[in-house]
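Final report, closing paragraph on structural work. Over the funding period we assembled a curated collection of sequence-structure pairs, and we close with a single example.
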Amino acid sequence: MKEEILYRVPGIHCGHCEAAIREELSTVSGVEEVAVDLETKEVRVEGTGLKDEALRAAIDEAGYEAA
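Its predicted structure, as stored:
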């Protein structure tokens, strides 16, 4: 069953931030789609069997922190 998780990531502000987060999250098992909104500083992850811990670790690996 497809699910959606939303993270607030206050440190994002440009296209590089967006690309780094997309790249790291795309490596996480179960992730099918990543949407980054620079205006609201939110990251939406869609997929199946998503694990919060793994997603937060990927955001951290990209150099950002999910609030």
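The chain is about 30% helix and 30% strand. The first strand starts at residue 2 and ends at 8. We thank the funder for supporting this effort.
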